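[job 4471] stage=fold_predict status=RUNNING
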Amino acid sequence: MDTVNQLIVDILAKVLRINQTTDATIRFEYEGFPNAISCYGWKDGYENARIDCDGYPQPDISFASGFLSEEFTEQPIEIDTPDAEQKLRALLKSLNKLERELITNAE
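[job 4471] inference complete, writing structure tokens
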């Protein structure tokens, strides 16, 4: 569980860094039941997002099972399952890839 906790801290730090250094807005959410996290966001920022039929900004990126998806899907990663570490590592890798893409596109 120590590895899972460290990965969660690393993911949170990466989300904060992306939010501070790029135009993107990434949300990191913890759900108590089930014991899970979800991560999604807007590449061009919350304020510049496409509006859905209810008038809310529609996320254009999510990380289903830890992998970057251009289509929003609500699939939280349960952190007390045997494959949690694998999914969290995939999420961190996807966030690193997204950060490089956003920085490259900004230049």
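[job 4471] summary: The chain is about 40% helix and 20% strand.
[job 4471] exit 0
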